[in-house]
Design goal:
single chain; 419 residues; Arginase, Chain A; eight-stranded parallel β-sheet; two-stranded antiparallel sheet
């Protein structure tokens, strides 16, 4: 049974069994090239999320999953041996050699601890997924780094070394723990690595919502376009929703969910759902430049958690504003736990990036004290996003966002009767 809450005002009996994977050692993966200017894939990203969940007393309602590094056997089901050998050698390289090695890849940094951290990241997600697919937990959040959805079979790219989600999926399928797995990738970048690995697999449905910008947005390939629907037996099991510009917001994402993602999910009826949970589409993210709120992330999590008895795990991918990712993760975890609060309790979007990640935060000249939960906390099985996030839930799509989703629906109709 879940641990009981300690803070006055929280209900003491929560039915959802929600786990999390976290290991402080993942922060050892760091950029050696320029320590004065933190890399966007900042080692503090996982700590920031964990810290806010802890100070909000949510960790008291969750189960910590013990983490082990992914094994060579598990990793080599996805990645080529020569590539893993090259990562293995980085453990004993000097600084100059590490910098030379990282320059062989696209947007990657390396240190002597990087490969071990990548194995911990993949292993943390694996451990959490096993707990959920086995039924010991209902859902969970993997607070892991380095991220993984860009990592390909034979190369690192886009801050990613090992493809965490692909490694977890291959292990689950091989061990017969699930037959149909759905991946929803809401990172602002297309998860080219996941798509490539499962492009022919009809047992893995991959759905990605990402900035495409005519193929110019990272990873700058036409593989993220809407016409990439899968190959051979996997045809129809790859769905790309490629936004044509920055500025996509709650209305665009919820329109995509209502018109496409959720109907397809219900027809596919997955045994297990993994969310490639990058938060770089969040408001204030300097790279994604979009406007998705924490409330919207909570709503999307809730919608997916309603599918097929709700076996679901979120795995951290991107997200480069520390406060934005922490508050977005907070919303997602609340959705998993079934917690709701009174409308209006969430701070306005203009200041949300300044609230409560530290005991006293000063961000962009705004000082604000720690977040305090009082009688606004509620918890039951009937979590209602209309109560939780009325502005988000009622938001309409932009003209460009609607055009993209409608065109993807038109393409996918030949594969999905629900559309």
């Amino acid at each position: 049974m879940p641990r009981k809450a300690t803070r006055k005002g929280l209900l003491r009996d929560f039915s959802p069994r929600v786990g999390y994977a976290y290991d402080l050692r993942m922060q050892y993966h760091c950029d050696l090239d320029d320590t004065d200017d933190p890399h966007p894939e900042d080692p503090r990203r996982t700590y920031w999320i964990h810290n806010l969940l802890e100070r909000s007393d949510l960790l008291n309602l969750m189960h910590a999953v013990k983490i082990f590094p992914a094994t060579d056997t598990q990793i080599l089901r996805v990645h080529r041996n020569h590539y893993i050998n090259s990562l293995e050698k980085t453990k004993v390289m000097e600084r100059a050699s590490l910098i030379d090695e990282q320059n062989k890849y696209d947007s990657v940094y390396l240190c002597s601890e990087s490969y071990y951290c990548a194995k911990l990241s993949a292993g943390g997600l694996l451990s959490l997924c096993h707990e959920v697919v086995s039924g010991r937990l209902d859902s969970g959040f993997a607070i892991v780094r380095p991220p993984g959805h860009h990592a390909c079979k034979s190369r690192a790219m886009g801050f990613c070394l090992l493809n965490n989600i692909a490694i977890a999926i291959e292990d689950i399928l091989l061990n017969g723990l699930a037959e149909r797995i759905m991946v929803v990738d809401w990172d602002i970048h297309h998860g080219n690595g996941i798509q490539d690995i499962f492009i022919r697999n009809p047992n893995v449905l991959y759905c990605s919502l990402h900035r495409y910008d005519g193929g110019d947005f990272y990873p700058a390939s036409n593989e993220g376009n809407m016409d990439k629907v899968g190959k051979d037996a996997g045809r129809g099991f790859n769905i790309n929703i490629p936004w044509v510009t920055s500025g996509m917001g709650d209305g665009d994402y919820l329109y995509a969910f209502n018109q496409l993602i959720i109907p397809v999910a219900k027809q596919f009826s997955p045994d297990f759902i993994i969310i490639a949970s990058g938060f770089d589409a969040a408001i204030c993210d300097p790279i994604g430049e979009c406007d998705v709120s924490p409330e919207c992330y909570a709503t999307m999590t809730h919608m997916l958690n309603e599918i097929n008895n709700g076996k679901i795990v979120l795995s951290l991918e991107g997200g480069y504003n520390l406060d934005a990712i922490a508050n977005s993760a907070l919303g997602c975890v609340k959705a998993l736990l079934g917690i709701k609060w009174r409308a209006g309790f969430i701070p306005e979007q203009a200041i949300y990036n300044a609230y409560a990640t530290l005991s006293a935060a000063e961000i962009n000249g705004v000082s604000i004290g720690p977040q305090v939960y009082r009688d606004e906390w509620k918890a039951d099985g009937g979590w209602d996003p209309k109560i939780e996030v009325p502005e988000c839930f009622n938001a309409g799509p932009s003209v460009l966002g609607k055009e993209v989703v409608d065109e993807v629906v038109r393409i996918q109709k030949q594969y999905w009767k629900c559309l």
